[in-house]
Fold:
Amino acid sequence: MTGPALRAIVLGSGAGGGVPQWNCRCRVCRLAWAGDPRVRHRTQSSLAVSVDGERWLLLNASPDLRRQITDTPALRPRGDDRHSPIAAVLPTNTDVDHVTGLLTLRERQPLTLFGTKRTLDTLAANRIFDVVAHDVVERRVVPLGEAFEPLEGLTVELFMVPGKVPLWLEEAEVVTDAETEGTVGVAIEGGGRRLLYVPGCARMTPALEARIARAHAVLFDGTLFDDEEMIREGLGDKTGRRMGHMPMTGEGSTTEAFAHHVGVRRIFVHINNSNPALIEGSPEAARVAAAGWEIGHDGMEVVP
Structure:
């Protein structure tokens, strides 16, 4: 008889807007709209983790959560009454694409909502989230750097990563790589295996390097292929770093920072619709693969 095993399912591998984005005709989205098999459709960023396959923790609640549940047999209700295998939810920040899925979970289903104090306070300040009824959905503040068990046999620790406030909270002067509890990574351990989930990160730090070295697998911010992507494609006037994201390639990039972590499985998630590495067989996809990375996709199962 085997013991508990850590298992993760990538529910959504896209960044905000998904692939194709509803109003976009960029190079990648044109292929997706046309049904080109080289570009998978992707929903917005979320991950499910479990050690028993019966009770699941969601990391981020995507606006596409209902579709993600219907597409994922492990998350569908069972039995003859109301039920959900989703026992807990933990947003990594209050980005629109990480918290609006909470509104999908408003049918009085008992579960626990974990988060940093800043995250839970921000949600509490917006009364629309009160539809996730307080008498059945417990809110529980998680201090940074303290391991806890959201599910039996599953240990989780939140840690700061450099990032910025969500776009909807930006004011006149924006610090794009501040280390605060506003943007966190998640260290997950179960069955003797360790997984890191970092869907947003502005730069590498020594503390993050140390965590990566101890992990068996890392799911990491893959928003843009290079820092100038949005500007070059005519989709915006911000660099990746101004958006709070390390680029996949180039100076100070993710592939450069991870180059010596050859023993760690490396998977990109939170990938923007403009990213040419999403085109299977493209030179950009080949470059990422040659650097030892996988491109995450919806429904991808990861057993570290």
Q: What stands out?
A: The first strand starts at residue 7 and ends at 12. The helical segments are 27-33, 65-71, 96-99, 117-124, 206-214, 229-232, 254-257, 283-290. The mean pLDDT is 93. The radius of gyration is 18 Å.
